[in-house]
Amino acid sequence: MTVSTISDVAREAGVSVATVSRVINRNGAVSRATEEKVRSAIDKLDYQPNVWGRSLRRGESRMLLVFVPNVTNPYYANIIAGIEDTARAGFYNTMLCIGGGVQVRRAEYLELLHNGRADGAVFLDAALDSKVVPAAAAEFPVVQGSEYCADESISHVSIDNRSAAEEVAEYLLSLGHRQIGFVGSTNHFISTRQRREGCEAVLRRADIKPLEAFADKDYSFLSGVRAAGELLDRKDRPTALFCISDVLALGAIRAAEERGLRVPEDLTVVGFDDVEYATMFRPMLTTVSQPCYELGQAACELLLRQIRGEGAGTARFLPHKMILRDSSARRAVES
Question: Residue 91: which domain range?
Fold first, then answer.
């Protein structure tokens, strides 16, 4: 079996060996068109650059840590895929660090940064009041994805959660709903706070106070069933529910079915995230779509720039989109 060399790649791409080296090491000015030619040649020839030997010489690990609170929520899947693909394009590997709120486990992962076995980290589980993330960012390249703490000096990528929640509330009002329920969570993520604040701000202007219930911090399906059930068992039960995640919204639909309520005829349900499950069942879920894959890409790109010494403190907000499906309808007029 013939092993391709860097000279083979250069010849295939029609560039110099030095240009191929700059693309691989990401340490020089190369046009986008030239970089694409080089990467295409690398893929065609299945060239495997000796990044490990080079990493040892430079004191690099070529490993990135990705901290997630859990892997049961499908929301994280496409973000992780975006991070992974971007890391591999830059000749980095990734390690998934599932913290689950266990401090000892998190500390073990962070030790990989301290002992040089990882070069940086993307945190997808940063609480608003986190002390761990600022401490890590003070010593190592760190980027936050989706969730982020109050320290503005640490880079993060997310959507405008407050604005998205405002759009949901305005949409529910436009359908004629006035008895509106909000299913939140007990976690300390900034998205949780901002979605609640956005919803409440719009309803307050309409002189409406939402009925509220709170699911578990991990957005589990069963906690969505429970929280929505609390609202649907009220005498003044809502005609519409805004759930801060699709998994919770699917739980709300289950809770409605258990009580003989039809969605959307008797109850409108709106979720958030647009995970794949949102279209797997009837009624398909009205929701807010996040560009999850692109969010992962952007977070990893910012991290790689920091590793190259290009600075931190960047805040990027990606666009969201309201997706209207079967689970929402105009409020039924009582006869």
Answer: 55-159+293-315
